[in-house]
Amino acid sequence: MGTDDIQSEGVTRLLLKWSDGDPAALRSLLPLVYEELRTIATRHLRRERGDHTLQRTALVHEAFLRLVDQRQVTWKSRAHFYGIASQMMRRILVDHARRRLALKRGEQRERLSLDEVLKDSEEGPPHLEHPSASASTEAASVDLCAIDAALRRLGALDPQQARLVELRFFGGLSIKDTAEVIGISAATVKREWAIARAWLQRELDAGEAL
Asked: Model confidence over 134-188: pLDDT tens digits?
């Protein structure tokens, strides 16, 4: 068994103890997951403007505080934990983006397509690229809100596909980890991911045409 497998088992064991109400497990868990949470936060912030007021460490800490309040969650695995953590970070950043856009409403903004911020990997997590220089300050935040709205519409139609996008696009989980969290096969994840991505792109394109 490799080091990563041993660590994964340790995280899963602590998560189960935490779910059972052991407060000491939470204190032991944080050092094991902190660096991965920072990696997830970096992935989220990569599509944000460079002068974003919420920095990586603050995003990690705010997300972790929200995770501590998730008393009704039965943690299944390390991947499950990271998926929920990423969802928390998305909600935090969307709230920040909405507040900023409320102050900027009425200005002209260049928008990015989903393909411009998302580069798919068949086996690994999606790779996000920096926006172009001309769109780097505003478009990323606008896209985050637009994607969030589209994702909510997708959730009303197909909750599983919306959850898959949460884990793959926002959480950066691999196909294997996404399959584990949702409880479906890797082949199904690949198929549903392609369908969901195409649906989201159509929704974003339709929104820009309004």
From this structure: 334 344 444 677 888 888 899 999 999 998 988 887 777 889 888 988 989 999 9
Half-sphere exposure of 32 (CA within 13 A, CB side): 21
Report CA-CA distances (Å) from 133 to 38, 108, 145, 180, 205.
Answer: 25, 16, 20, 37, 21
**Alpha-carbon distance values, 14 to 39, 145, 176, 209 (Å):** 21, 34, 22, 49
Q: Are 14 and 21 in contact (CB under 8 A)?
A: no
- How would you label 100-119 residue by residue, b for 16+ Cβ within 10 Å and e otherwise? bbeeeeeeeeeebebeebbe
C-alpha 177/C-alpha 46 separation (Å) is: 22
Using only C-alpha atoms, the chain has a radius of gyration, in whole angstroms, of 17
Number of CB atoms found within 10 A of residue 72's CB: 6
Question: CA-based angle 166:133:197, to the nearest 5?
Answer: 25
pTM for this prediction: 0.67
CA distance 56 to 168: 20
CB atoms within 10 A of CB 7: 14
**Backbone dihedral angles phi then psi of residue 119, each to the nearest 5 degrees:** -115, 115
Report domain extents, the chain. Answer: 3-209
Q: Which residues contact 61 (CB under 8 A, 6 or more apart)?
A: none
Distance, in Å, from the CA atom of 78 to the CA atom of 72, rounded to the nearest integer, reads 17
**Is residue 147 exposed (0-12), middle (13-18) or buried (19+ Cβ within 10 Å)?**
buried
